[in-house]
Design a protein that fits this description.
It is built from 24 helices and five strands. It is an alpha/beta fold. α20 links the parallel β1 and β2.
Length: 649
């Protein structure tokens, strides 16, 4: 046990104290680091989004100018819309919180389910695209190992994120900055090296537009541009990541979030728009086994030794940034899952934090989900991008529609700027929903059906889980009311004699369950136990870790619950005291406290209640933590017995 703990701390890092007032300064993100960690998803989409749009134009490549302009405008419109989300929801949650609170719980569920699938696909598509860039540098006989390398990379990112969000970002920061710098330099050089063609882009585009309209009409031309624009929708992915993770940003969170969004909008519009301009100027042709970016950068750099080295370096940074983008799924996805767990849509265990204060269960789920998708798609980026882009625009559309509804509702209370804000959010909603419809219709048979099916499956299971928790909580509330005992007698406690028989009772969140255990012990062993010791652990999860005030509130609630049981015993002349611990692992904290109590009370027996369901199966055991069973096992190893009292629900 010692060795396993030592190895765990060596690999993952030492446990963090959530009650340390300086901790948030250590784990929170300043705007620059947040841009690196959360902006990589959006910036990396310039590796495949502009290419998809350009190739869709066919022979009418001059229309790419419209795509470049529309891309830059769309990026800033979506960013402005999400700035409003950051202002309204500074505790994080992004699209899920917006849809839940402004459009209703079930619309929020749709947004949450879409985000779960979206972030898993973020990991999958970025990993596959990055490996495509890497494997384009090696001989073709190594291609069969690409899928294996993708799976291995996901496991590596999973391990890295177990150490903590800030640590994973710092490790990947040089890759992000290297990509950004080298692409800005190449785009700038490529444009100025072809400055003669730059002056001809606008007249050539206008001339081709007029000629094509005369041949086929303006409706087909508009349809072609919109089709290409929608296929390049992958360019806008990742813009919602900041609003989902505002709670991890450095104070003042709103200002930090807005600055991060500005960095993301500027960097994405520069790279995506710049790469489309390079396509227009250098007119690259698709080549087998090479991305269009690789072709155009090869044309710019030439075949000299220096050019070959720079091209290799560029592709390596592209692959690296895509891996950083895959890491974004691990940063943002588990946080969405944790917010849904707080609302009862997914199992409670997904809101729990590890000793490094990351959502450990969520990390594992997203890692396994991404690996499953990769294996099913055999690492094909073209298919993964289709699956990916649909849910991205589901969340975009719901968030921006929610903000539009909010400004309409609050127009009488809001400031005079509400019209401008409504205009921004409504315009962004119209654009994103139009892209969603076009993508869904055009790509449904090519793989879009799978995204719809998987998302609907997630929705179905979430509804079942919510139904179960709703029934369970209703019965638990009734139980708390029924078993709540008043404290109205004078307190007259007996002094504690540590050598007398002692009943040690584990207390959970429900006072009704704990009272059932206490009364059951008194009835089963009349006048046997002379001391009653109550043990409870306050667990720091995603909800309580949102701020120091919330942590203190959780601590007060746990202490008040324990104090109630001590007073209840005292009013009947029973000797009693309480022990409390706080941490991220319920079993670990309770085991530690149990060892401490057993050293003081040599003649003690531990008691706990276990909820028994009428239809008990692995599903109910997964939805509810099996803490008593695990505690019983742990106490057995230290020579103590835990009696588990069944309680039917």
């Amino acid at each position: 046990m010692f060795l396993s703990k030592k190895w765990k701390e060596t690999l993952i890092g030492h446990p963090l104290n959530p009650f340390n007032p300086n901790l948030m300064r250590h784990v929170s993100l300043v705007a620059f680091i947040a841009w690196v960690g959360l902006g990589a998803d959006g910036l990396s989409s310039s590796c495949y989004g502009p290419e998809e749009a350009y190739m869709a134009l066919g022979v009418h490549t001059n229309f790419a100018l419209y795509i470049a302009i529309a891309t830059a405008i769309t990026v800033f419109l979506i960013s402005l819309g999400y700035n409003q989300v950051i202002e309204l929801f500074p505790s994080g949650g992004g699209s899920y919180k917006v849809a839940s609170q402004l459009l209703g719980a079930h619309v929020g569920l749709l947004s949450g389910a879409a985000l779960i699938v979206d972030y898993a696909l973020t990991i999958a598509v970025s990993t596959a695209s990055g490996m495509d860039a890497l494997f384009s540098l090696v001989p073709i006989q190594y291609l069969p190992y690409k899928l294996m390398a993708e799976v291995g990379l996901i496991f590596g990112l999973l391990f890295l994120n177990m150490r903590g969000m800030k640590e994973s970002i710092k490790f990947l920061m040089p890759i992000f900055l290297g990509f950004f710098v080298i692409h800005v330099v190449l785009i700038t050089y490529g444009i100025f090296a072809h400055h003669e063609g730059l002056m001809l882009i606008v007249p050539n585009t206008l001339e081709e537009t007029q000629t094509t309209i005369k041949l086929i009409g303006w409706v087909p031309v508009l349809a072609l541009v919109l089709h290409a624009y929608s296929l390049g929708s992958g360019t806008y992915t990742g813009l919602e990541a900041v609003s989902n993770n505002v709670n991890f940003l450095r104070e003042p969170r709103v200002a930090t979030g807005k600055l991060t969004m500005f960095y993301m909008a500027i960097s994405l519009s520069m790279t995506a728009g710049g790469i489309i301009l390079l396509y227009l100027l250098w007119e690259p042709k698709a080549a087998l086994g090479k991305t269009l970016n690789a072709v155009v950068f090869h044309s710019i750099l030439g075949d000299s030794p220096f050019g070959s080295i720079m091209l290799t370096l560029t592709l390596l940074f592209e692959a690296g940034l895509l891996f950083v983008a895959a890491n974004t799924g691990f940063l943002a996805g588990p946080n969405v899952l944790a917010n849904m767990a707080i609302d009862g849509w997914v199992p409670n265990r997904f809101r729990h934090l590890s000793t490094r204060l990351v959502v450990q269960n969520g990390l594992f789920l997203f890692g396994l989900f991404a690996i499953s998708v990769l294996i099913w798609c055999k690492g094909k980026v073209s298919l993964l991008v289709v699956l990916y882009s649909i849910n991205v625009f589901v969340t975009f559309s719901l968030s921006l529609f929610g903000m539009s509804v909010y400004w309409l509702r609050e127009r009488n209370k809001a400031s005079s700027k509400w019209r401008w804000r409504l205009c921004v959010s409504l315009t962004a909603f119209i654009i994103t929903s139009a892209i969603l419809c076009v993508t869904l219709v055009n790509k449904f048979e090519e793989g879009g059906w799978l995204t719809v099916m998987v998302t609907c499956t997630v929705l179905f299971f979430c509804l079942l889980i919510k139904r179960h928790y709703r029934k369970f909580n209703k019965k638990l509330t009734q139980l708390d009311i029924q078993l709540k005992q008043p404290i109205d007698l004078p307190l007259n406690p007996e002094p504690i004699d540590t050598y007398q028989p002692t009943a040690v009772i584990f207390i959970g969140k429900s006072p009704g369950v704990a009272m059932h255990t206490l009364l059951y012990i008194i009835r089963m062993f009349p006048n046997h136990f002379k001391n009653f010791v109550f043990i409870s652990a306050g667990i720091v999860d995603v909800e309580s870790f949102s701020g120091q005030n919330t942590l203190q509130k959780m601590r007060s609630e746990v202490n008040e619950n324990l104090e109630y049981f001590v007073k209840y015993c005292h009013q009947y002349g029973l000797a009693a005291e309480a022990y409390v611990g706080f941490g991220t692992d319920t079993v670990a904290e309770l085991t530690r406290l149990a060892e401490k109590v057993s050293k003081k009370y040599s003649n003690c027996i531990f008691f706990s209640s276990k909820l028994i369901f009428e239809n008990d199966n692995w599903i109910t055991r997964f939805l509810h933590n099996e803490t008593p069973i695990t505690l019983q096992r742990n106490l057995h190893f230290i020579g103590k017995e835990l009696v588990i009292l069944p309680m039917k629900i």
